[in-house]
Structure formats: structure tokens, C-alpha cells
Amino acid sequence: MKKIIALMGCVIMVTSCVNETQVNNPAFQAKFNDSNWKSQETSLAIGPNGGLIITALRGNEELVLTTSSANPGTYLLGTTNEANFASYSLKSGINTTTYDTGAFPGPAFVTRKLTSGNGYANDESALTTGGSGSGLVFRITVNSIGAILTDTIKARGANYVTGDVVTVEGGNNNATFRVVNTQQSNGEVVIEKVEDGKYTGSFKLNAVNDSGEVVTFSQGIFYRLPLN
User: Fold this and answer.
1) How much is the mean pLDDT over the chain?
2) Residue 226's closest CA among 196, 193, 201?
């Protein structure tokens, strides 16, 4: 008798899980400033440039994600490529506050090495010059000719803008990095797979308004969204 009751319990649990999956298929949800955020209505379309436009609505809120392509891949936000873009708007009465991942000055968030240079030494606090801001510092390791092999950001500095190019001091002063995005405006949309015309992926972002206030979406997912 106990075995029968246990078996029935397992069947109920499995049925519950199946129903939950069906309810959440398709799905669009995330953490919004550390609170759960789930779309009540989601649409997906192909934009004029061939990329995705995902529009998620919840009450008086709207989150829009756009990418430069509809192919699987990672699309960085807050960069000079504004085809990869996110915006969040909140309506309150007749007023609407909008946050987005457009260019905004701030501490460097993601950087990309352009040239490795030579003549450098391993350095825990490699200073930089150039760009719109100041204070960006790297930890670097180098090879036998002093070319930079690895780099991590030690200090993000301030007042940089997307696309800034900085030079690492020392060596032959010929190692350069580009500021990909800044701390207030960044993120990524990842299209993981496309099956039967339905899109699955993930996203995270920081978006900023004109006053410099930032909202954060983290642990975002979209699951089997069909084209509208």
C-alpha cells in the first residue's frame, strides 16, 4: 500500500512539472533589480536589418531587445553598434521614464585589446592614457618580447565613452585597448538556438536614463519565442 501511495505521489509530481513547462512555453522572464520580472505579453519579429526585435510587456512596463542578426550568437549591448540595443520604459500617469543601452560616459566595463605592443613587463597596475576619461588600470602579463598576453581590469576609471581607445603606459607605449561599453550601459543578448522558427536564449543588461539612474536586468531568459 505504501508503495502504491509513493508511486501516485511521483506521478502527481511529474504531471505538475509537465504542466508548469507547458504554462511557461513560450516564456520571457528575468531578475529586475533583484526582483522577479515576468512578461505578460511577448512578441518577436525580424527587424529591417535582419535582426531580432523582442518586445516584452508587463503592466505599464515595456522592455525591448534588438540584435543585429537573427543567427545564434552573443550580441553585446552599449557598444558603438547600436543595432544591438535594449530599452526599458515605465509609464506613470502621463509621464514615461526611459532607460536604454545607448552611449553614456562612465567607468569602462568591457575592454578589447587592439594591439599587444612590446617591451612591457608583468605589471599589477599598468596605467593608461588617452580616451575621454581617466583612471583605467590593467593587470597585465607579457611574453618574452614584452607583448601583452593577458589583461584584467584593476580599476575602471571614470568618464570613458564607448569606442574610446587607450594606450598602456610603459614598454614602447604601443599596446592599445578599446572601451567596448561602460558600467552604466552594457550587457548582452545571447541567441542560443533556433528550432522550428522558435528562439531560445538569455540576456542581461544595465540601462541608464538621462539623469544617470540605472536599472538592471539579470538572469534573463527567453524560451521558444515564435515569430509574430
Assistant:
1) 91
2) 196
